[in-house]
Amino acid sequence: MNRRQFLATGAAASLAPRAHAQQRPPNVVLILTDNHGAWSLGCYGNRDIRTPHIDKLASEGTLFTQAHSNNAVCSPTRASLLTGLMPSQHGVHTYLGAGLPQIGEGSYNTIAEFATLPKILTSAGYTAGLSGKWHLGDNLNPQEGFSYWVTKPHGSSDGFYDQEIIENRKIRKEPQYLTDFWTDQGIRFIEQNRSNPFFLMLAYNGPYGLGRSMREPIRNAHQAYYANHELPSMPRDTPHPWNHVHSAWLDDIAVRRKYAAEISGIDDGVGRVMDTLGKHGLDQNTLVIFVADQGLASGHSGFWGMGDHTRPLTAFDWTTWIPLIARQPGRVAKGQRSDLLVSTYDVMPSIVSHLGLGSKLPQRPALPGRDFAPVLEGRTVEWDNTVFFEFENVRSIRTAEWKYIERYKQEPNELYHLKSDAGERLNLAGRAEHRQLQESMRKRMYAFFDRYADPKWDLWKGGKSKVNALSADVLGIQNPYGRRQ
Fold first, then answer.
1. For residue 227, what is the domain's CATH number?
2. What is the domain range of residue 92?
3. Structural domains in the chain (count)
4. Residue 313 and residue 458: Cα distance in Å, rounded?
5. More confident residue, 189 or 18
6. 3 state DSSP class of 247
7. For the segment 266-307, what is each residue's pLDDT rounded down to a tens digit?
8. Is residue 258 part of a domain?
9. What residues contact 206, with CB distance under 8 A and at least 6 apart?
10. Any idea which of 16-20, 243-247, 358-362 has the lowest mean pLDDT?
């Protein structure tokens, strides 16, 4: 096993243990962004895109330099974020398309049978509010213990102005800039519930980076700043042969400027939320988590989009590398940068542990998610520095140095030496000199899924999907809604 004693850098000393926590349980604000690569933020080294408030959040807390999503698209990663489970455990293998199971007769919540972060927190006395994108089903009705519920009828984003939203279980058009609207609603929830423990899931539908939303003119406060910006942090490259859509965007400066402006719009919202917490004296006793559902390529290695915008489907780092930042003064180490490899499925159990509610974590299904709460306090922890990924017929295992990718009923398999080939351009799979390493990683990957996958939802062993699968033909399965997405 790839275990080692891990100590994050940047923290002067371990923080006081949980006994020093405030008498009232800490509030939780989970800020979730959509299709958002870590590379795009100043605190991760970007010098083009303005993110002063997110950068400040990182400087006042702990930033994970190597956080990765466990899937390539929105619904599965959100399901994993809230349950601590893999797609082959919760059954959500790809994004929910328009209509069922999101809206209409027969719609349903795809994670209703599981213990989730909001369910655990509301059972402990928290009030839970959602402002933003849900994309997990039965969108018209509050789910998972949320009593405050303002969301979208669907998952995709055609734009950020004059878009449909759900409020009071009704669909209407909202003329306001959606990023500001979600922030306003989140602040309203905080102010309404500031006297008692609360959990806010502020789920922006930006920066998105895809479809018609990127052709919508920039209308937020950052239009002038990006009007003539060349944004060199977004590479101009020849399209990769597997790039399935958006090839013309690889040299489209207008799309780049729109994506950057939407990131800065979110940053404004983060600043307003943090100001609200300070204004009401909630700053010290609120755990703030900033994370994305999955990453996005913006020219990187000749791709634009996510892992579903390639053929075959892929598991490259540009799909999986996400920002993950935690802040709570006095409880989370200030200015700490952790190189620990962590995944989407680690977030839920770590938040629950940080809050002292570990006894409420479910025993079944078994959680692959691990507890990095001690790292937040600047403490040393033993850690298997490995993360796993699955997206329909694609699975991977990643260590700090190597990544192995395998496809079910499809070629090729891939092996990359990440230390010398960060762009994952040189496939070393099948080479004699790496045969032993490849087989060792393959065995570890199979052992992981043999341990955790539920046969009912294990697509590699004849299981089903709760939603239509992009690779249904390859997998040889029936899509539940009788059509390709």
1. 3.40.720.10
2. 25-377
3. 1
4. 17
5. 189
6. helix
7. 999 999 999 999 999 999 999 999 999 999 999 999 999 999
8. yes
9. 33, 34, 157, 160, 178, 179, 262, 263, 265, 266
10. 16-20
